[in-house]
Amino acid sequence: MNTIPEFLEKTFEDDPNKIAVISEKQQYSYNEIDQMSSSVAQNLSNYPKNSVVSMMLENSIEFIITYLGILRSAKIAHIIPSNISKINLNEQIISANPKCVISSNQYFSKFEEQKLNLDVLDAEKISIDGKNDYSKNEIKKNDYAYLVYTSGTTGKPKGIAVTHENVLFSTKNIVDVLQYKKSDREILPLPLSHSFGLGCLHTGLFVGSTIILHKNSTNVENILKSISENQATTLASVPATLSKMVENFHDKTKNSCENLRLIITNSTAISETTVKKIIGILKTGKISTYYGLTEASRSSFMIFDGEVSKYNSVGHPAPNVQIKIEGDDLDGNGEICIKGQNVINNYWKNEEMDGNIENGWLKTSDIGHFDKDGFLYLDGRIDDMINVSGEKVNPSEIEMIVNEIGGIEESIAIGIPHETFGQVVKLFAKKTNESKIQESEVIAYCIKRLERYKVPVNIRFIDEFPRTEYGKIKRYELKDLG
Question: What pLDDT shows up at residue 310?
Fold first, then answer.
């Protein structure tokens, strides 16, 4: 297999009646997905090979069928998150320059408002009114498969075009390291418009397993119910959802999740408490995390076990992926650089960003270090560092400590101007449900665990953090809050 459509086609040939996706309690076999995605591909046959086709759909069977149909027609799928702002939508369309857009009734108005001179196709309609015997175009492994724009937590989003070869390499590593197999049944509440969720879809198609798709992860109880009803073997989830599961629904989580063989999450900070509670719930299963960027997916893997002394590590480099720390200081901290077939060759129409890729090495702007056992740790972002009287402070260190406190769901530390010290630390925190924790309690805890200059001088509790379309917190907007 060299291309993403071949993932689907192999399982279709081997076991066409196997259930590929369960969405909204409706089951879809590999045969049905093959037929519907073929119909989409046929409807796109008039557009040039390797041209861009934009798609905006929520998590649904239509998303999967449309995505595969675009790829089977030898086009590039420009994936737009459904909750995108008008400004970002306009910028992405200008940059991607698609030949057409595929969407659904609920989003047509967004494109009408943009007054775009583009064909807007109905995803549901084109999945059923085309011929299944479309003329296949040759797809090469180094052709672009999909185009996404990064979250833009610190600035303007950048376009990242990922090749079939990039996807194949990363998917094989996921399967080999985490031992995915055909018999797996994965609960997937992650947005497919994000590389984490999309990578899970690729994995399911590659091994021919079954994916139970959820629209989102907001309803934790619904996810837990789905795990039991569908006899799931794996769960893909962001750390915030896992924390809610074990903190607010511990007994239900134990009953639903104890027989899972794997829980996979991503490199967003996950607390030691959450890891320990999940390890205590799983009978024989594992919890794993990974580190990667959209432009260098799944660059490292960490599989936690009973020994959680390295709970805040993102593990070892993935097979055949090189990671080095460049410009490291006396403590071994420096910029993380990645090299491997999972790394893109260049950015989408962005020569300035192309400067971050030199001789195959991607400069990530992430700060990290390796310990003596070769485990990789993330220490923050270059542009997030706080400078207190010349002392460099990693906000992630403060956030990890604060997130240990009972009653705190999530926190973000930023630097704010100070006449004497240049900068001091300000903390934004979100409380858990019914938490009555006070600022003084947080400060007292920090004083016990941190050097004095790292202790926040100001704490502000907020109801919700400003987030990007991909769920990442916009630190720069917090700075504007003062």
Answer: 86
